[in-house]
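thread: overnight batch results

M.L. [08:02]
morning all. the overnight job finished for the chain we discussed friday. pasting input first so we're all looking at the same thing
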Amino acid sequence: IGELIPPGGRFPLEMAQDADVGSNSMLTYQLTSNPSFSLAVEEIPAGKKQPELVLEKALDREKQSSFELVLTAVDGGDPAKSGTIQVRVNVTDANDNPPVFSKKVYEARVAENLPPESLVLRVQATDADTGSNGRVSYSFRNVPDRVHPLFTVDSENGEIRTAGPLDFEDKSEYSFILEAKDGGGLTGNSQVKITITDENDNAPEIALLSLFSPVPEDAPIGTVVALLNVKDADSGENGEVSCELSGEAPLSIVASSGGSYKVLVLAKALDREEAAFHELVLRASDGGDPARTGTARIRVTVLDANDNAPVFSQAEYTVRVPEDVPVGSVLVTVTATDADEGLNGQVKYS
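M.L. [08:03]
and the structure it wrote out:
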């Protein structure tokens, strides 16, 4: 009997035979008590009675798949004689149960450097029906276009695996609907949430926003020389950046309030006569393990200031001249030099 047959349905049972005649062969039927079934007797030609099994309550194969009943036939003799037969009712399956996932929401955390075809998680849905009605297949349902290149689901075992490279910096969480469908077309849904965890796969980047060069050599300490933006696309400790300048640079680093901007300022007085320019290397390191680094080279030219007086080659020149030297004769040549450059270093005599 199909489990979706409504109450009131009738099913003929085997009629009993009695070799006697008269009242000794007049038969009545009895059925063992069961709330799901009752017995009805249908009068048929030739004075026969046809026993029928009557369905009293709706069946549910998933609750009870079979029933064992006993049909008894009693004749009208004295004493009466009876015969029995076993009646087994098998409830046949109908596709009245959709697939049900073991969880309403599946969650997983995976690292962004997982290789393709790595297992992310496994989902499971069960169907109380049998045969093809209980056979479940899995698929994505109305997922965003960007999910398909990154994840796959095995229709048979419900394994979700990576299909392409994951990038925490591109997107750190994916949420989509997974569908389970049985052979009869009934479906069930569950939500999948995949969180991508950060790996230290990005080195710090240094961008030179402004460089105020050349710098006058008489510029005061604290003068801003350069403005830089230092950033790391990773998060947490992987994205925390520290900076240092190489060598004996006359500059120091000052961090902005936001932390991503670095200001290079004069840390000590400049002297163009000692160094006309300074080659600096700014090194930025993140907090990952192992750490990643980024570098930037900066050239600062020192602009001359008139901070040096002319200096004669001798502090005193002594010249002996005969008294009859002609007018216009060269008596002595003096030389003076100035360490400054350009006009500041051009010397005139008087």
